[in-house]
Amino acid sequence: PCRSFHGNNRLLTSQIISYYESINQCKKELPEHFNFASDVLDEWARLEKDGRKPANPAFWWVNDEGEEVKWSFEELGSLSRKAANVLSEACGLQAGDRVIAVLPRVPEWWLLNVACMRAGIVFIPGTSQLTAKDISYRLQASKAKCIITNDTLAPAVEPVLPGSQFLKSKLLVGKGSRDGWLNLKEL
Predict the structure, then answer these.
(1) Is the pLDDT of residue 9 over 80?
(2) CA-to-CA distance for 177 and 4, rounded, in angstroms?
């Protein structure tokens, strides 16, 4: 059944099923390469800009103190392109490289996730509850070339980094700075 969410009708289950059936019957062409960031998010931004889709937030985050971050599809697209450039240029990453993010679920967590999709970089999420042993294992097993954390968690992350032979760059999310770390907001 079709349900209304903020006044907008969503696809009926039968519409979704018929779409997948048409793909299975080779009536729809599958793209050779699919990228959620450029093929979906950027398309929704274009449809909103052209007035063919009602404006809705692409991202809406609220913390315990009531602070909000709300990004439109166009803003999320622009910010994720900038973050993808930081990962590619400043951090020296290429498609297929791996990134470990040890972050709480702050807006930058989702932004970097989309940026990685856009650049073809593998995003490996980690929680702020990981121990030094957990982080070390993940760095070695994944052969991650970059680690991303915030200024609060960096002191817990730093002691295990010298043992990681694949790590090329360290990216800090937040207002602070640390020796040897790049800062996402500054870049």
Answers:
(1) no
(2) 45
Strands (E) across the chain are located at 4-5, 8-9, 59-62, 68-71, 98-102, 122-126, 146-150, 169-173, 182-183
Tell me the per-residue pLDDT of 32-57, one tens digit each, with 9 for 90 and over: 788 889 988 999 899 988 888 888 89
pLDDT for 14 equals: 60
* CA 184/CA 82 separation, integer angstroms: 10
User: Measured between alpha carbons, how far is 156 from 129 in angstroms, rounded to an integer?
Assistant: 10
Sign (positive or negative) of CA dihedral 156, 92, 108, 129:
negative
- Cα-based distances in Å from 124 to 44, 91, 97, 168, 175: 26, 16, 11, 16, 23
> The pTM is what?
0.81
What is the rounded CA–CA span in Å between residue 83 and residue 89?
10
Q: Which residue has the tokens 């800062």?
A: 183
Walk me through the domains of the chain, giving residue ranges and CATH numbers: 36-183 (3.40.50.980)
User: Is it the case that residue 121 has pLDDT exceeding 50?
Assistant: yes
| Structure token pair of residue 186 | 């500054």
Residue 76: pLDDT over 50: yes
In sequence order, the β-bridge partners of residue 147 are 100, 170
For 25-160, where are the E strands, in sequence order? 59-62, 68-71, 98-102, 122-126, 146-150
